[in-house]
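[step 3/7] fold_predict: job queued, chain A
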Amino acid sequence: MKLSTKIAQLALVLGALPVAALAGDTGTVYTQLGTNGLGIGYAASVSDDWAVRGQYNTMKQSFSGDVGDFGSGSSLDVKIDFNSLQLVGDWYPMGEGFRVSGGVVFNNNKITLNGTGSVNNGPQTAVTAEIKMSDGVAPYLGIGYSTKPKVAKGLGFNFDLGVMVQNPKATLTAPAASAADVAAEQAQMQDAVDKLKYMPVLALGISYSF
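[step 4/7] structure written:
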């Protein structure tokens, strides 16, 4: 699914959240900075103990230089491009403050590499690689803190700590290298990114409730 389609879906969800909030009196806009990048979202109460949130996250970063997995003499341009949409339900078992959260993340986070490097300890060659963190929906479960939208007023603080279940996939192309070397190097990359299947999520932010 294209990111533009996901954004359109999130816009529809965010537009519907104020309607869902009719069970309460207020809504909350908030921003967070965390492992998924910079996030902006909207939360609304749907009952005395439950709220729902929709959030868009993004982070872009790039750097160039030596990447150890492709030999000490590698020279690669690395681009981190994180874009994700998350829909989360929050349960406030103590009335407000502490919350237990669960939902889904439409995860389009990826890292791309382009340049020259050694493939499976062979000679330097042109290399293009991509690490895609997830092919689709990633389940999310966590805990956190925020004032419940139904009772909140004014500025507030929020944080989330949880885990996102991904299915990362690494791909590699190197036209000048043998198919066997490319396959071996890609397998090493895949073994490394498999450790990111259970991705910790930590985010801190501020909010305003009206």
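[step 5/7] annotate
The chain is about 15% helix and 55% strand.
The two ends are 34 Å apart (CA to CA).
exit 0
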